[in-house]
């Protein structure tokens, strides 16, 4: 067995080569996909096959690459099983940038404008901070589980194991539906973003162009997605940092002469009408869903864990970087938004796409030439980035649904380039729904399509928190110690309870705002429409659960009966982990500070 890392006494092994151990012992619950018993070495294929650029690459992969590093003395019966057929192509830099910048997109650049109108400068800060606190706990819980179990399907597979297969079926299909609907939405937004420069080209033409771009990027598989995310995230971070610096200068009155920011601004917009909370409590409630949409995709690091060789090494920094993204990117930039744009500014409501972006409006008002175009370009690239994330997240979850028997078996097909081919095609085939927006009633139809998955992100995060609580309970019930865990969530199970409570409060707030929207309603029909546009995902989730239960009759397991071994990649004992941590504790102070803030 190959050694991994410098601590050879931990017997870290990399699962490579043919398996020659014993069969599965009685009493062990492990996956038995025959393809996982076959070793496949992609390095023997041509470069074109590995990149997915020839016909050979579309053929089914004959087995697993066994590229996931495992730590400790693994029982022989688990060596051959539960090796994801997906290939481990992601590098540490890919995972870091997916965590830091992957979900930055229209929710922040464009959605923050409407959120400012509803919640005011204080309302958007309060809502985003509450969502941020919740999300830090979600990602910490996800990191703890994904490092220990970097299984195909990530949090969906773990929810099926730790909570209830029927609930996981509902959550998994709801998650796939969410990304399937968001894909055409993002393609449409990309088209409308380009119209900031010219409307001479019809929207349908831009939709076609951007859809083709996403198809080509998706054809490049995991590596294409990872590289696109890396470079687009670099651009997004650069632009946000530039915006923050320029915003601070403008607030202090350092803007170009003749612009709106050539005199000191300070916090006057918080005090002048309509004030910090123009719509009061209801306004803050209305912002929560926009905030959730802006954070959507943060959980992708949990899905990506199975496609990086050593999650124990790369995942902790990705998880911790979430805190810095929330603090430095979202909270700081939204503070700038609230200090530079009035919540009743007419430009927030007149137009669409980047026309109503507070980022673009600031540059226009300050008369800083050129940067408005750079921000618009960044928005366009961000939209395409999220569109590609839709295909990635939806296809990986659909494949996991098929692997657990909750979707047609052909969705388990993974080709020699590591692409879940039929799952990718299933997501892409829904892209043309973007053309609905070209019709006269397209906007109304699309609103209802988006409503189908409006709460899916919150439901997914809730399931991650509950899964972690159940995991900790099972871990304790089966005689394990938290000292065995290679990465421990910051707040432990209490953090997951806090995340659960906050999500439930947010769901209640959304229920309230659905029944009593800002501005009120004139009839019962309008009230019903407002409610279902906000809460249609809830009955869809219930329907999925009923179908899943009727199909498989799955029920929650006792904590003592939950399978904690299949797919586990860390088998280090308490004593071994104590030695490991003692060695790390001997590092210089600055190294320990860096590890505490950014690593493990």
In short:
This protein is mainly α. Helix content is 59%, strand content 2%.
Question: Could you describe the 3D structure shown?
Answer:
This protein is mostly helical and 600 residues long. The chain has one domain (92-553): Amino acid/polyamine transporter I (Up-down Bundle), CATH 1.20.1740. Helix content is 59%, strand content 2%. Strands 1-2-3-4 form a four-stranded mixed sheet, with no helix packed on it. Helix 4 crosses helix 10 (280-295) and helix 7 (203-219) crosses helix 14. The two termini are 25 Å apart.
Q: What is the helix fraction of residues, given as a range?
A: 55-70%
- Roughly how many Å apart are the termini? 25 Å
CATH architecture heading: Up-down Bundle
CATH superfamily: Amino acid/polyamine transporter I
Please indicate the count of domains. 1
Count of β-strands: 4
As laid out across the biggest beta sheet, the strand order is: 1-2-3-4
Largest sheet: 4 strands, mixed
Kindly provide the radius of gyration, computed on alpha-carbon positions and rounded to a whole number of angstroms.
24 Å
Query: Average pLDDT across residues?
Result: 86
Q: What structural category arises from helix and sheet content?
A: mainly alpha
- Tally the helices: 22
CATH topology: Amino acid/polyamine transporter I
Main location: membrane
GO cellular component, one term: membrane
GO molecular function: amino acid transmembrane transporter activity
Subcellular location: Membrane
């Amino acid at each position: 067995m190959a050694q991994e890392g410098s601590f050879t006494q931990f017997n870290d092994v990399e699962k490579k080569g043919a398996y020659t151990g014993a069969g599965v012992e009685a009493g062990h619950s492990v996956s038995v996909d025959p393809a996982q018993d076959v070793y496949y070495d992609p390095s023997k294929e041509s470069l074109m096959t590995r990149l997915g650029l020839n016909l050979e690459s579309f053929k089914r992969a004959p087995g697993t690459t066994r590229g996931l590093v495992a730590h400790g003395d693994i029982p022989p019966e688990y060596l051959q099983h539960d090796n994801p057929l997906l290939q481990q192509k992601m590098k540490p830099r890919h995972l870091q940038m997916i965590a830091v910048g992957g979900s930055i997109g229209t929710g922040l650049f464009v959605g923050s404008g409407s959120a400012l109108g509803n919640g005011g400068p204080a309302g958007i800060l309060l809502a985003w901070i509450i969502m941020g606190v919740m999300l830090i706990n979600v990602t910490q819980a996800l990191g703890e589980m994904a490092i220990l179990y970097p299984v195909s399907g990530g949090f969906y597979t773990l929810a099926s194991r730790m909570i209830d297969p029927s609930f996981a079926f509902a959550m998994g299909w709801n998650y796939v539906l969410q990304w399937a609907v968001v894909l055409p939405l993002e393609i449409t937004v990309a088209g409308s973003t380009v119209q900031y420069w010219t409307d001479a080209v019809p929207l349908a033409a831009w939709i076609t162009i951007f859809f083709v771009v996403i198809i080509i990027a998706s054809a490049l598989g995991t590596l294409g997605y990872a590289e696109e995310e890396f470079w687009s995230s670099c651009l997004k971070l650069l632009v946000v940092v530039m915006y923050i610096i320029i915003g601070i200068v403008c607030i202090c009155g350092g803007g170009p002469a003749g612009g709106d920011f050539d005199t000191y601004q300070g916090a006057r917009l918080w005090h002048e009408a309509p004030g910090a909370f123009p719509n009061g409590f209801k306004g803050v409630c209305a912002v929560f869903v926009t905030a959730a949409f802006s954070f959507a995709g943060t959980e992708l690091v949990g899905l990506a864990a199975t496609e990086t060789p050593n999650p124990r090494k790369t995942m902790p920094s990705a998880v911790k970087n979430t805190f810095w993204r929330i603090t430095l990117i979202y909270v700081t930039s939204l503070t700038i938004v609230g200090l530079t744009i009035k919540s009743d500014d007419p430009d927030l409501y007149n137009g669409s796409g980047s026309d109503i972006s507070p980022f673009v409006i600031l540059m226009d008002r300050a008369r800083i030439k050129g940067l408005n175009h750079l921000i618009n370009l960044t928005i366009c690239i961000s939209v395409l980035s999220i569109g590609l994330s839709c295909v990635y997240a939806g296809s990986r979850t659909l494949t996991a649904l098929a692997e657990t028997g909750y979707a047609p078996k052909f969705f388990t097909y993974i080709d020699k380039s590591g692409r879940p081919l039929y799952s990718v095609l299933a997501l892409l085939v829904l892209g043309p729904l973007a053309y609905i927006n070209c019709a006269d009633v397209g906007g109304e139809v699309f609103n209802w399509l988006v409503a189908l998955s409006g709460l899916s992100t919150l439901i997914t995060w809730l399931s991650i928190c509950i899964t972690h609580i159940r995991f900790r309970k099972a871990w304790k019930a089966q005689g394990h110690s938290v000292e065995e865990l290679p990465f421990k969530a910051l707040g432990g199970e209490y953090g997951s309870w806090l995340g659960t409570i906050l999500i439930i409060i947010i769901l209640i707030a959304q229920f309230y705002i659905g029944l009593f929207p800002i501005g009120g309603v004139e009839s019962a029909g309008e009230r019903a429409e407002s409610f279902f546009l906000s809460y249609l995902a809830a009955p869809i989730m219930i329907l999925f659960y009923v179908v899943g239960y009727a199909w498989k009759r799955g029920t929650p397991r006792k904590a003592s009966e939950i399978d904690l071994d299949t797919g586990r990649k860390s088998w280090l004992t308490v004593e071994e982990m104590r030695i490991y941590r003692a060695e790390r504790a001997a590092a210089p102070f600055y190294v320990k500070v860096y590890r505490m803030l950014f690593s493990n």
